[in-house]
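Is it possible to get an amino acid sequence alongside its tokenized fold?
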Amino acid sequence: MLKKTKAFTLAEVLVTLAVIGVVAALTIPALIQNSQNAEAAAKVKKYSSVLNQVIKRYSLDNDCIGDLAVCGAFTGNLDQAGNQQVWDALKPYFKIAKDCDTNAGQGCFYTSYKYLNGTTLPGSVDDFNWAKARLADGISITLVDLGAGNCTSSKSADPTSPLYETICGAVGIDINGLKPPNQIGRDYFHFKIVKNGTVYPSGAFDDYARGCDPASGDTNEDVSGAPGFGLGCTAEIIKHGSINY
């Protein structure tokens, strides 16, 4: 006689498939998010290196290694002309797909951004008089002259800090270009150019814009005491190698 083999019933198969579906629904989104966070962190770290290399090459070409004030580009004119002057000096070192200069509404950045805490950034980055461009790899970049008289601006109150009376300019990048989420600390990240030619991530040392907590702990240097803006997340993401906040 043939030996009978026990088979799964249709109900058992359906229950098993349902369990697999539930597990997948719970784990796959987290895996995708972790992958996206790791990719974002890699891009931020890459551009930290790229920006430092740009300033190094500019310094070599203009005989101002160790003192960007000697180059003359960062004059501290916190206006459209000053921003354009710095951008004209640095743009040859980037691979640019679209150059918006300091003109408004040219489509180099998304029109509306949010802070890390979810509130909306006043105005449109694309309309600001900052220098703006979209790079060949899809990154959007903006640059502002903060020299306050040849690299003497401060983002620290401590005279011993690397950020005390040494700030030349600031750089913002959107690692997704025009794509969402268009949020500071998620795809928009901020750096500071200092007099000695180093580009530091915002949030490093005792930067006014430090911390990376959407509820508290982060202070925007232009709006004293405002929590959760996310500018300090750049240092956080480089330190930990991932978006873990």
DSSP finds three helices and six strands in the chain. Confidence is low (pLDDT under 50) at residues 217-226. The first helix runs from residue 10 to 61.
